[in-house]
Specification:
mainly alpha; Amino acid/polyamine transporter I; globular; L-isoleucine transmembrane transporter activity; membrane; Brnchd-chn_aa_trnsp_Livcs
């Protein structure tokens, strides 16, 4: 019989796991969202920050714990209780979203918007983006093709440098504040519902989806430290995650406050990339902007290499008809093409997909975390997921740009969706999901009693 005892980990080992979690969820590309959230929320930044930290910090940690508790090998296994077809479709949607559709192109557009665009005249911006993204994804392809560790090693040096530069900006921003974050003007949506809107803005980080896709690397590292039982692994992830995610939460919180303060000098920006550029240029001048351009480009390139390689590896595993290199070529070309639509368009079209995927991911994460209480019974999963999918599709259609949401079909869906509780908040799936949970647990309990009765009769 295998030895399932779990040795006590040292502080150094906990720190290693915390570093892995921090590296998984901290990305330069995500910094634009809390900064822009601060501008949107203005004096209502406290409530907005609370909501943002739930979906941007707590949920990603729970996604890794879900991997640990269910002993999953990736996002496919998280959806497995609902059948192979659902698991495969869910995996494809997750990887496509954090990969070539939105996540990977965003690494290039954020780098360009923050690091390059300020130095390029307005009339040459589109051409410059084309050239920049071609070079960016050409390098990503080259490093991923040979699975070279050079860029990863460079990233280990430059990521801390980027953090130092970021905290220097925080220090200067608080020593020379542009405004009082408690008195700046908030947009109408945040005056009415800062917590919920902050919660929805947290979807943009895509970290909960990334946790499902890549969390197995952290879980595997914990198991290699001698933690065999699922409960022991999840405890290590929780303890280490508290330290790691506290760091991520602190960075997000400071960015939200700086964003709110920036309204004292700047108008509400089109996106967080523009806001970040304005702040760095104001506090650091051209030199600070140039240093930031190099650091953010390399850190985002490191992320892009990981994303295209992971996409190619996972798709080759499940669809072996195409080689790793063929999948790598496809995802890199798709990312390059979509990146040239620009950061604002990518955010505008990714929001509807996230309004659909995040509710699904949330219920699957929570079901996985609490699955030991109902023996991971597929019937519970089925009731909850079915009751979540339909309203989430409605939220997705309503969130599309006006070309879809203002069409006859979009208006019809909006009329139906408005009948559901919390629809005005973008959370029309919550009540149906809870109803599905009650029904699923009820059927599960009935089946357990039936099985027990049959055993007694036998």
């Amino acid at each position: 019989m295998p030895d399932l005892t779990s040795p006590k980990l040292t502080k150094r080992q906990y720190f290693v796991v915390a570093s892995l979690l921090f590296g998984l969820f901290f990305g330069a590309g995500n910094l634009i969202f809390p900064l822009h959230l601060g501008q949107l929320a203005g004096s209502h930044w406290v409530g907005a920050a609370a909501g943002f930290l739930v979906t941007g910090v707590l949920l990603p940690l729970l996604s890794v714990m879900a991997i640990a508790i269910t002993r999953a090998e990736g996002v496919f296994d998280i959806g497995r209780p609902l059948g192979v077809v659902f698991a495969l479709v869910f995996m494809v949607l997750i990887h496509a979203t954090i990969g070539p559709l939105f996540g990977t192109p965003r690494t290039a557009t954020v780098s360009f918007t923050v690091g390059v665009a300020p130095f390029v005249p307005a009339q040459y911006q589109q051409v410059a983006l084309l050239v920049f993204s071609a070079v960016f994804f050409g390098l990503a392809f080259a490093f991923s093709y040979r699975e070279n560790s050079i860029l990863a090693n460079v990233g280990k040096v430059l990521n801390p440098m980027f953090l130092v530069l970021l905290f220097l900006m925080f220090l200067v921003a608080f020593l020379r504040p542009l405004g009082n974050p408690m008195t700046t003007t908030a947009t109408a949506a945040y005056v009415r519902g800062s917590v919920v809107n902050g919660f929805l803005q947290g979807y943009n980080t895509m970290d909960a989806l990334a946790g499902l896709a890549f969390g197995v690397t952290v879980v595997t590292a914990v198991r290699q430290m001698g933690q065999k039982r699922a409960g022991a692994v999840s405890k290590v992830v929780a303890k280490s995650g508290f330290l790691a995610m506290a760091g991520v939460a602190l960075i997000y919180l400071l960015l939200i406050v700086v964003g709110a303060m920036s309204l004292g000098r700047f108008k509400l920006s089109a996106d967080g990339g523009v806001a970040f550029t304005q702040l760095v240029n104001y506090y650091g001048g051209a030199f600070g902007q140039a240093v930031l351009a190099v650091l953010i480009t390399v850190t985002c390139l490191t992320t892009a290499v990981g994303l295209v390689a992971a996409f190619a590896q996972d798709f080759h595993k499940h669809f072996p008809q195409l080689s790793y290199h063929a999948w790598l070529t496809l995802t890199t070309l798709a990312s390059f093409a979509i990146a040239n639509f620009g950061l604002q368009q990518i955010i505008a079209w990714s929001t509807p997909m996230l309004m659909f995927l995040y509710p699904l991911a949330m219920v699957l994460i929570l079901l996985s975390v609490f699955s030991p209480f109902f023996n991971r019974d597929g019937v519970v999963y089925a009731f909850v997921v079915v009751m979540t999918i339909v309203p989430a599709l409605g939220d997705m259609v309503v969130a599309f740009p006006s070309v879809v949401s203002a069409s006859a079909f979009g208006k019809l869906v909006a009329t139906w969706r408005d009948l559901l509780p919390l629809s005005g908040l973008g959370l029309s799936w919550v009540v149906p999901a809870l109803v599905g949970l009650v029904l699923g647990l009820g059927v599960h309990a009935w089946r357990v009693r039936q099985a027990a009765t049959s055993e007694v009769v036998d």
